[in-house]
Amino acid sequence: MKLKLDLHDIYNRGHDIDRALRSVIDEAVRTKAPLVEIIPGKGSGQLKKHVLRFLERKDVKALYHRVEKDSKNFGRIFIHFRW
Known about the structure:
The protein has helices spanning 14-31, 46-55, 58-61; strands at residues 2-6, 35-39, 66-69, 77-80. By secondary structure, it is an alpha+beta fold. It has one domain (2-80): Ribosomal Protein S8, Chain: A, domain 1. A four-stranded mixed sheet has the order 1-2-4-3, covered by helices on one side.
């Protein structure tokens, strides 16, 4: 089961972005989903940087196994979990 979060609708609301990211990660932990796909979009790259900074926080980083930036699509990030 893969969870998906598209950030296009809330790209300019920092607190909503953090809440949405936390929510999808908590859901992945609760359901033991092996993969979360986050779509910050291509744009200027600022939203992607925001997402990557969020994922580097110690409390968040402890929950997942690794982050993969899609080499074919700059506007997509995968978070892998190991259960």
